[in-house]
Structure formats: structure tokens, C-alpha cells
From TrEMBL:
The lineage of its organism: Bacteria, Bacillati, Actinomycetota, Actinomycetes, Frankiales. GO terms for molecular function: hydrolase activity. This is Putative hydrolase of the HAD superfamily. SUPFAM superfamilies: HAD-like (SSF56784). It comes from the Bacteria. Keywords: Hydrolase.
Amino acid sequence: MGARCVVLDIGGVLEVTPQTGWMPRWEQRAGLAAGTVLGRLADVFLAGSLGTMSESEVIAMARACLDVSEEQLEDFWSLMWDEYLGTLNVELFAWFRALPPRFRTGFLSNSFVGAREREQERYGFADVTEVIVYSHEVGLAKPDPRIYTLTCERLGVAPDEVVFLDDTPAAVEGARAAGWHGVLFRDTAQAIAEVEAYLTP
């Protein structure tokens, strides 16, 4: 039986997110040694991605750990979110939003606290799909098998009815292990063609 539900990753797929090199530039401007941010905030970033800290708590911890001015801290978050949100993959977005009502749709994203609000404001993702599962809201991240099960439950579909598109091999393999059809994103034309090959006519 062919798939009847398409689930997309967001960052690196629906959002084009090349690395901008903002962090070492910011560290240099702030007078910090290279690697300071990741060294001091690794646990904070993890907590933010799994929702064990609120956005305000993440900001407060960053303020305490980095010991920089408020202006520098504002610059830090601005640069981070600019890279995180990237730019919209317009072709993929247009294709995806045209799938309903023939197919069910959803997003599954390893995310960070504050992502839903910013992505909705910039791109209106919640307006074009039924379900968005964010890691920071559910406390699970790909490739944890439980997040694929949860996504199926929220969409009301069986695993073998889902085709999933992601740019991270581990996430695609996790989806396949959960019984989904998995496609690794390399470019937009390839991705659309491979996803459509799984869909029920």
C-alpha cells in the first residue's frame, strides 16, 4: 500500500539553513575565546531543544554563563535565530501546501524553545499543515523511536502510511526503523520525486 501522509523536517529541508559562521565571529567581537559558547552552553542548548528549560530560562542561563553586556547578548540571539530560521525553500513549500486534501501532512522537527512562534510569524507553517511536532514541546528528539510513534498518533495514521523527508541520515534511518518510508533530502527536485514515488495515486 502506498503512503497517504507526508511529513517533513523543517531546518535544512523546508528552511534553507547554511552555516553562517556567526558564533566564532560573535565570540571574537565579545572578546571571548573560540569555542567558549559551546563549552559553556552545551547543556543549555540541549535543554532548550528538549524543552526542559523555558525560553526565558535559557536566556537567563546564557546571560549568567557568558558574562557579556545586554547589547552583546541581544546580538547573540539575533544571530542565532537568523541562522536557525534561514530562508524558505519556496519550491518545496508550494509543493507541500498543495498536497491536502489528497494527502495528510505534518512537520517533525528537532527544534529549540521559541521556534514555533518565530516560524509561524515568518513562514506561517501552522497554516499549511495539520500537525507540527517540535522536540522542545514533546521532550523527545529524532531519532528516538517514540517521537515517530507520537507523530503517527497525532496524525491518526499507521507507520507504513507515512513518507518522511529529512536531511539528517540518522533521522531518516530512525523513521525507517519505526516503519515509515524515509527519504534523505539532497536537493528539492530529488526530494519531491522520491517522496511522490511512495504516494498512493
